[in-house]
From TrEMBL:
It comes from Tritonibacter scottomollicae (Epibacterium scottomollicae). Residues 34-323 form the Transglycosylase SLT domain. The keyword Signal applies. It comes from the Bacteria. Keywords: Signal. The keyword Signal applies. InterPro entries: Lysozyme-like_dom_sf, MltB-like, MltB_2, Peptidoglycan-bd-like, PGBD-like_sf, PGBDSf, SLT_2. SUPFAM superfamilies: Lysozyme-like (SSF53955), PGBD-like (SSF47090). Residues 344-398 form the Peptidoglycan binding-like domain. This is Lytic murein transglycosylase. Residues 1-28 form the signal peptide.
Amino acid sequence: MRVLPSPKAVLHRTALIALLATPTLASAQCGGGFQNFVRGLKDEAVSAGYSIKTVNGFFSGVAKDSKVLRADRSQGVFQKPFIEFSRRLISQSRLDRGSRKGEEFDKIFERIETTYGINRGVLLAFWAFETDYGAVQGDFNTRNALVTLAHDCRRPELFRPQIFSALELYRKGDFDPARTTGAWAGEIGMVQMLPGDILEHGVDADGDGHVTLKTSAADALMSAARMLSHLGWRANEPWLQEVTIPAGMDVSASGPAYKKSVAEWEAMGVTPRSFDFAMKDVEASLILPQGHKGPAFLAYPNFDIYFEWNQSFTYVLTAAYFATRLQGAEVYNAGNPDTGLSDGQMKELQRRLQDRGHDVGSVDGILGANTRLAVQQEQMRLGLPADAWPTPDLLNAL
């Protein structure tokens, strides 16, 4: 039975929605003196209907955290290629612990699978990568991190609304501004969710009257499942499957931007490794993270949902692959990929692609979606295997 919130709760929720919908919050009112910035936040919160006592209690002792800014500017781990990155994150110990956690929380996973149709391997993989099954949740003060990142002006449209979501959690008794800690970017709990996502998708799965993602595995897992379902997860469908491609196959249609039915891929000679193809009428993308000589996967529609959780292609592919391992898939065939580029070479490649009119985003040395697509287009122009994997030969050809 759905329990309707009290009139007071409705008032605060309406005020919060109005506050987050204010156009100026997305782009203006960042930078300048930190204390002036905080005063502006407090004034807006009061004008939205929060009591002065609540606002003062939330912002009491708020401070700028320089460690947060350093962390924001040093995310070099995502520059590593898939094979190196996945081997770094996936160990037999993590697999064994995932198996034990699946058994320990079997009942909550059964609820999730029944309610949302999301395989336990998917959530176990997130749980493992985000916090090592809850062991490492981050020690950054969440309120300070959010205020620091909103003040920084790099992405105020992302972080500023999260401040007011945290304020609403504080009003509800589910957030302690002095003691709540998490990741440098403001994520909280065992599966690292932002305050706004906790407000919208949080589930009190253990029935204690609070949504506690830091200490309740049941709350964390059920909340993550509800969020994935809201983002469009297709119930009881696969997300990723390792495949083998035939020698000499035309790979110009590989990559997340291109889709064919599984039956069409099969007709081209693509075959599964661990399990048979279960849904041949569903469209999928052929993913070659390190080119046509390396690992190969078919990515199903649910794979796209991973990018709503994290924008890093390498992270997403590794998390999706680890989820298949937790469900019994074998270790991928690493193959013998062509040598990739160093950080300096990758940045030089991005500059040369920009000179040719390609939109690769910032020159950051990360092989993201835009850079991959530009590489593939140049490979086709030059008559090279168009697998979106940049090599020194491609760099020299450009």
